[in-house]
Amino acid sequence: MWINKIKINNFRNYNQQELRLEENINILYGENAQGKTNIIEAIFLGSMGKSFRARKDKEMINLNAQKAEIEIEYQKSDRDGKIKIELGNRKNIFLNGIKIKKLSELLGNINIVIFTPDDINILKGGPQNRRRFLDIMISQLKPNYMYHLNLYLKTLEQRNQFLRQIREERKDENLLDIWDEKLAEHADIIYQYRKEYIEKIKEKIKNVHGEITEQKEVIKLEYRTECTSKNFFLSLLKQRRKLDIIKGYTTKGIHRDDFVLFINDKQIDIYGSQGQHRTAILSLKLAELNIVTEEIGEEPILLLDDFMSELDENRIKSFLNKIENTQVIITVTEKIKVENKKVLIYNVKEGSIN
Questions:
Q1: Helix (H/G/I), strand (E/B), else coil: 209
Q2: Could you report the per-residue pLDDT of 163-203, keeping only the tens digit for each?
Q3: Coil, helix or strand for 73?
Q4: At a CB cut-off of 8 Å and minimum separation 6, what does 164 contact?
Q5: Tell me: the pLDDT tens digits for 89-122?
Q6: Strands in the chain per DSSP E
Q7: CA 66 – CA 89 distance, rounded (Å)
Q8: CB 292 within 8 A of CB 140
């Protein structure tokens, strides 16, 4: 699949811009803070319905405007399509001219894999970063996953609120059974999805990392969860009920899932070098790319934001050699040379692309 054209109005530092893309390699180069990442963000928004860096939609609207629009024309092996997103007092999403009611209707139309300098925090940061990585990957492939995840998080918020009411207003704690049942129901579905895709990652990352490191390193992934079944999670919630009431929040659940990577049996976030962290995240992203390709039957779009800053020349060449038949959008500060591939190069300066 690939994107043919992007049109943006009053998005970030752009007023009006239309950008046509090559089916293979597209390079956006320019100094920092000129608007390169904003193009990556617009594509991500068109795929996922939200930003990978803004907490609120209004942050993406040009300071001199009241609303912003992005429009993306794309092609897949079996169809073409158009996605339009309007940001203003509320967000409106249109798929082929028809306004959609649920975010799950958008997911899976434009499949992407994104690589940013902040991705190193998937391994170095807290568990929420690794859960977010899983959530983005799985929801593109299984939109129903995001539906259950959102319901789980909504139920979790309601349960936490009621826990505080029990503590402060002496509400009947037996009413927690209602929230526990709903929470466990969604948690079990989310766990089944995560377990399935963790197994896929384990298989892919082992082979990818072995190739990148010339078999000098063995990488392993361990999934950590406390929600291996609905009944087990229900019993866990009951065991922790008194503590949850005291604390005013749910101390156990799928919202605390994590996964850990090991290189040569050593936990990477504790013992890994900077180089090993970079190679491991590269392997993780390539594993994601391979999984998405197998699932949808064609290559997803690869977004590489500030790609050069985190990788040395050998890793860059190794990466690019593994992405045949993939549309790639790369942002860099200086032009780069890519051999044996069709390349389209744009210069980005002060919210204008030439």
A1: helix
A2: 999 999 988 999 999 999 999 999 999 999 999 999 999 99
A3: strand
A4: 248
A5: 999 999 999 999 988 899 999 999 998 888 888 9
A6: 2-9, 16-20, 25-29, 68-75, 80-87, 92-95, 98-99, 112-115, 219-224, 258-263, 266-267, 301-304, 328-332, 343-349, 352-353
A7: 8
A8: yes
